[in-house]
Amino acid sequence: GREVLWRAMAALSAYRCIECNGEAAELYRDYRRGVLRISICKSCQKPVDKYIEYDPVIILINAVLCKAQAYRHILFNTKINIHGKLCIFCLLCEAYIRWLQLQDSSQNTDPDDLIRYAKEWDFYRMFGIASLEQTSFFIGIFITLWWMTPEMLKRKSDFILLLKALLLSTYGKLLLIPAVIWEHDYTPLCLAFIKVFVLISNSQAIRVTLNLNRILPWFAIFFGLILENGVICLFQKMGWDV
User: Fold this and answer.
1) Which of 25, 107, 206, 211 could potentially form a cystine with 217 if both were Cys, beta carbons 3.0 to 4.6 Å apart?
2) Is the alpha carbon torsion for 212, 216, 217, 218 positive or negative?
3) What is the pTM of this model?
4) What's the confidence (pLDDT) of residue 234?
């Protein structure tokens, strides 16, 4: 009875080796008096997670470089729970960029209150459109992965983990604000590079979460983009500026 309980608790607290993605019961062992020993993976014979000794800035830099080890550390071996707030903030950034571009294209400078309310409504509308586009993008990814690798998404927890990974990997959208603040002639090019960077981060998040090859995540992202652009075309046919 105790052995079964211990195994169940170990399974619930299992970590992942950042090198081979193998499971590990612990990241390190505390021998008291400040003496810590990093656990060694039984599969690859390397430290389970070397990043537990690293400064957060170095971990962030490695994540920006899209290293699989940094992604595994963040997704499996930490208790980061900011994906919801990060998603909202990224959508606000994207909505602000679209709203700003919409205001730049408008020649109306009337300070009337009705005009100000209309502009405020435009921001909320852009936020809603950005949310629907991102949702359709994620739905396209989930449908493709479920269709091609159903064994990878059998449980509800698998879907939740993948969704969390996708939300965290959209952090590149935070670069939209500096791109607008430091406005120059190359702003459209910067926005395009930010979009590509976010897609690369999404691909790495899918690959790390489901332990896939490099091709399948891009295939899923491709269908996600098709569904997202379908939603954009629908909005344009309705006469909305997106």
Assistant:
1) 206
2) positive
3) 0.82
4) 84
Which of 45, 47, 127, 50 lies closest to 93, judged by CA? 127
Q: Rounded to whole angstroms, how far apart are CA atoms 73 and 61?
A: 13
Of the candidates 30, 6, 17, the one whose C-alpha atom is nearest the C-alpha of residue 77 is 17
**Residue 202 to residue 26: CA distance in whole angstroms:** 28
The overall longest dimension of the chain from CA atoms, in Å, is 76
Start-end of H helices in the chain: 2-12, 56-64, 68-76, 83-105, 113-148, 156-168, 176-181, 187-210, 215-237
pLDDT tens profile 203-217 = 999 999 998 888 999
Residues 6+ apart with CB under 8 A from 90: 170, 171, 173, 174
β pairing state of 28-30 and 15-16: unpaired
Give the tokens for residue 14.
Answer: 């299992």
Q: Tell me the C-alpha to C-alpha distance, in Å, between residue 230 and each of 45, 114, 132, 218, 238.
A: 47, 33, 11, 18, 13
At which residue do the structure tokens 């020993």 appear? 37
In this predicted model, what pLDDT tens digit does every residue of 15-32 receive, in sequence order?
888 988 888 888 887 777
CB-count burial class (<10 Å; 0-12, 13-18, 19+) for 152: middle
- Check: CB of residue 39 under 8 Å from CB of residue 28: yes
CA atoms within 13 A on the CB side of 36: 9
pLDDT digits (tens, 9 = 90+) for 111-170: 555 455 557 788 888 899 999 999 999 999 999 999 988 888 888 888 899 999 999 999
